[in-house]
Design a protein that fits this description.
Elements: H1 3-26, E1 42-48, H2 49-59, H3 64-71, E2 73-82, H4 88-100, E3 106-112, E4 118-125, E5 131-139, E6 144-154, H5 156-166
Antiparallel strand pairs: 1-2, 2-6, 3-4, 4-5, 5-6
Helix pairs in contact: 2-3
């Protein structure tokens, strides 16, 4: 094996890997330091790329579009924290700090209810409108704080087809394109 040929190839491969990792991490938002409730009720789901690839393979024959979407995801994180008197104020402040840290993300949904319920959805997009990831934060003051972070390369029309397929209410701007 010729090491003089292997070294440039290895450096190039490492550089590409670092670039891909850096791009994915730009859309990765963690909620790990969320204050727990006195009951300790927490749901923490972390689906890495390797499991998403397995899900894509299992789904491919029955739903190719969903499988293709799954292949482009790097990770999916979901955190649900029970809110109570002991953690409510700190948790709500934590959510606000996370939202403030996403200043360069596009705000796509913002709902504020008089009862304190609060939903915020933001997307991180590149110049070519590829969605690098999105973050959903939900405050239900008498129930839970919910965080969802999806990281990957998603084209708007691809996401639109999936939303239309699953008929997600409240997402009319992401309808599937009509085929001629």
């Amino acid at each position: 094996m010729n090491l003089s040929r292997l070294l440039p190839t290895t450096v190039l491969a490492a550089g590409l890997l670092l670039c891909a990792t850096a791009r994915a991490s730009d859309a990765l938002v963690t909620f790990d330091d969320m204050p727990a409730s006195s009951s300790g009720q927490v749901v923490d789901i972390n689906v890495p790329h390797s499991l998403l690839v397995v899900a894509a393979q299992a789904t491919d024959k029955s739903d190719h579009e969903t499988a293709e979407l799954l292949r482009h995801l790097q990770c999916v994180r979901v955190n649900v924290v029970k809110l109570d008197a002991g953690n409510r104020a700190e948790a709500i402040e934590h959510i606000r700090r996370v939202r403030e840290s996403l200043k360069d993300w596009r705000k796509v949904v913002s709902v504020r209810q008089p009862n304190g319920e609060d939903v915020d959805i933001r997307m991180k997009c590149r110049a070519d409108d590829t969605i690098e990831g999105f973050v959903i934060t939900v405050i239900q003051p008498d129930q839970n704080a919910v965080f969802v972070n999806v990281v990957g390369d998603l084209k708007p029309d691809q996401l639109g087809r999936i939303v239309a397929h699953f008929q997600i209410p409240g997402m009319p701007s992401l309808t599937a394109p009509k085929h001629a």
